[in-house]
Amino acid sequence: MPTLAETLAAYAVGERSAPLSDEVRHHARRALIDWFAALLPGALLAPATLLAEGLADELDHGKAIVYGSNRRASLRAAALINATASHTIEFDDIFRDAVYHPGCPVIGAALAAAQARGASGDALLRAIVVGYEVSTRIGVAVQPSHYKFWHTTGTIGTFGAAAAVASILGATAEQTAHALANAGTFAAALQQAFRSDAMSKPLHAGHAADAGAMAALGAARGVTGALDVLEGEAGFGAAMSVNPNWAAVTDGLGSRYNITQMTFKNHGCCGHTFAAIDAALVLQEKHRFSHRDVARISVGGYRATLDVTGRKSVATPFEGRFSTPFTVAMALVHGSVRLVAFEPHRLADAEVQALMQKVDVFIDPACDAAFPGARSARVTITLRDGREFSHFQPTRKGDPEMPLSDAELEAKFFELSEPAVGTPAARGLLARLWRIDSTDDVGLVPQALAQAAE
Q1: How far is residue 166's CA from residue 8's CA, in Å, rounded to a whole number?
Q2: 430, 33 contact by CB (below 8 A)
Q3: What CATH architecture does domain 4-266+405-453 belong to?
Q4: Which tens digits make up the pLDDT trace of 379-430?
Q5: Which of 314, 335, 343, 340 is closest to 326 using CA atoms?
Q6: Domain boundaries in the chain?
């Protein structure tokens, strides 16, 4: 019997030449556009800028691009820095059932590899699809127990990056299996790293991209790994999950594409806050009250809503992005939770700070039982005049059941990218990304961006 790594590798190699439907191609382009939307502003911020300083010896040679500076770099350096940058502002995509942000590690690694090897747009899209499918399926198999201690983007993302880079390199099935095998022993990212204000969380995505790329580069040259690293008695599943459901890895593999079921963020913060934000805005729109009318707010969610985003004191952008009380208050006071919400004047906004103290977060048993397949919240708002309104939000705006349209995705792209690179560059880049599978060289994307930004 082939191991899981061998089964996934056979799928990955077959996907390089199998017919790819227009629907899957379209969703791969949407994922790439959404990734750039999060990348471009994040590339101008720490920790990506600090990594570029620390890895100065890796820059100004090679064919991959480090965004922000648009400097050339080695494949691994570009994958590390760009994947980190794309996870910094918390606007990156989500595969809900795996509690996972695949775009950061997978696209970060795949694009760097495609640029380094001069791959076509078609090859890039196929690599993205392969990376998403391989990693999201492993992610589903090890959840929900994996998420108790581990940050899925840093762990599962390593498999996705390895699969994507192996695809770009044209690795054989045997080589791809060994890339996945070594990715499994490189994978790590602890949740404690984002329970307080630190730069570790975006670094998790960067490390996954880099480690996965290293696994693929080595395997393509003959470096071997333990092929049963996933299901082995001392392997990834045994160490980092409880009773993993390995059947989920191959269920529908090659016929049902998880990349068509992505969540694209509609708010610039942790996804565990989204259902509560959406519910609060629904109540405000329906009942026409002001934030000044609110006496108290009760938010019932799943465990991560409380454990990861339950903080009631915020002073930094990181703390704000990981606070349901703050983001709900911000939404009710200002109408949205976008990038400006985490600028110093908004973090210190007296009305937001006062309202967030009226928000209590607790675990709702029904919401908790539905996690991770549903990200729900039950919000009750009591007004100062005694009126009380409740709303159950079964999913989030941006989830597959309430997706962002192409037009809404484009609006998000422009909102995030134009301040970073300017309107001409943003518009030119978007046009190229929509037709990326028909371009001959993915190097045209960063070149156009760099020229337009000058």
Answers
A1: 12
A2: yes
A3: Orthogonal Bundle (1.10)
A4: 999 999 999 999 999 999 999 999 999 999 999 999 999 999 999 889 989 9
A5: 314
A6: 4-266+405-453, 271-393
CA 82 to CA 330: how far, in whole Å?
Answer: 29
Kindly tell me the sign of the dihedral angle through the C-alpha atoms of 210, 216, 218, 221: negative
Spatial distance between the Cα atoms of 423 and 453, rounded to a whole number of angstroms: 9
User: What is the predicted pLDDT for the residue at 367?
Assistant: 98
Token couple for 230? 């996933």
Residues 367 and 385: their CA atoms lie apart, in Å, by 29
Three-point CA angle 109, 113, 116, nearest 5° = 140
The per-residue pLDDT for range 211-234, each reduced to its tens digit, is 999 999 999 999 999 999 999 999
Of 223, 145, 112, 239, which is closest to residue 188 (Cα–Cα)? 239
Predicted confidence (pLDDT) per residue in 403-417, tens digit: 999 999 999 999 999
435 residue type, one letter? R
271-393: what CATH class? Answer: alpha beta
Q: Are 409 and 321 in contact (CB under 8 A)?
A: no
